[in-house]
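Exercise 7. Predict the structure of Acetate CoA-transferase YdiF from Polaromonas hydrogenivorans.
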Amino acid sequence: MSNSKFMSAAEAANLINDGDTVGLMGGGGGLMEASCLFEAVQARFLATERPRNLTMVHALGIGDKKTKGMNCFAHEGLVRKVIGGHWVWSPAMQRLAEEEKIEAYILPGGVSSQLLREIGAGRPGLFTHVGLGTVCDPRQGGGKMNKSAQDDLAEVVQMDGREYLRYKPFPVHVALVRASAADEDGNISFEHEAANLDAQSLALAARNSGGKVIVQVRERLPHGALKAREVRIPSAWVDAIVVDPDQQASYDIPFDPALSGELTGEVRYQSESADHEAEKAAAHVAFSERQAVARRASVELFNTGKARPVVNYGVGVPDAVAKLIAARGEQHRLYQTIEHGTYGGTLLDGVLFGYARNASAMLDAATQFDFYAGGGLDIAFLGFGEFDEHGNVNVSRLGGLTVGPGGFIDIAQNARKVVFCGTLAAKGVKLQTGDGQMRVLQQGAVKKLVKQVEQITYSGPQGLVRRQEVLYLTERASFRLTPGGIELFEIAPGIDLQRDVLDQMDFAPLVAAGLSVMDRAYFQAGAD
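Solution. The predicted structure, encoded as tokens:
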């Protein structure tokens, strides 16, 4: 009888039992997503209503907002509980949470990756400051995102006179892992992947929980084809391997060596989907408030006191900051990182956030988050859904909908300097700029500067304790966190302070005695 670990996707899906805790990996857009395995589990459930009542655990966002990724598991009865880092890629799973048909939880993306590693090492959970004062702190909700969620994922502990959170361990019964190739012995390589993510931590957690490690790869290689240093998951950890010859780098890119770091060159999309056409068109849009905020924010990048700062860019307006730095040819002046584990290169955005062209290094996600948590990140540019008079920021729950923080909490709480970027209001706002001024033609129906945020994803009070420099930059005005509260210290040219700023806020900020006006060049089309 053959003892080969290779099998079909359907056979691998049959290894999952009712009530199992299943660990997943992925980073949005198809990044390291085991799509073939996901679809096989869904097909089995739709045909047999098995497996049932699974607990799904994932650190980052997985899916396409339609049918892929976490959407494969968004069926009533298939899933009982989800502990997710980022939920927006699966509106179907968000609806199940909103309708109380599943237990919904969030954890910081880095905490999830690191906790898996601790589970695999048999340690008593993850002890960390990350999450204190946020929604993941049991005093602020403990990551529970709906009424059905009743479990306590973390507890507050005291050590050496300081507070920490202990995120509690749990067994991982199945790990669905994605990689590039497996040799006949079952050794696993990531050679053609665009990131490493938390594949090793996930496999380790399942292996040492007595669970099953199921790996999807594109290639089956002969015995001895992989050099020892190319093996990222050893055969001893692996239970089952599924070969998917159609596995792609992303949902729309079959393969590009510039994304996997194997060759230097331009990314050549081999699939001209509507999404890619839209992304290309977006690169040529007219000058807007987004670019104006990016210009203002970019000034802070080289005011960190470091000759070559280590930086992280989030999604949204921060994307524009990254593009601006690249357009100016200033990447050599900084160390660019992504929480997925990547250093350097040119960042892709939109559905391809998490990918980088011509990266200089790729680490596993848990190690990258260790670097962040230990204070290695000099500055971070992040978006905001809303912020309040205490400096708290919310990106994890908006309009009652579970969004999740992804790596936001780990990054925002640990960067020495944090620059939150976004617009001052939303829904119906009409702005005009490009001539050196910013004009508000129509105010927004939704205020983003609120008395109290719906949920705390970044804690202003904790930022003060950690002595962070924190700025909140919008197209109309700039604010900073002070011990006395949020201070307004500059406004855009053309903006009426009372009508366009103060009247559009739900709290009265401190106003700097020397209130300044931003440089008109930030608002001038073609000024770059």
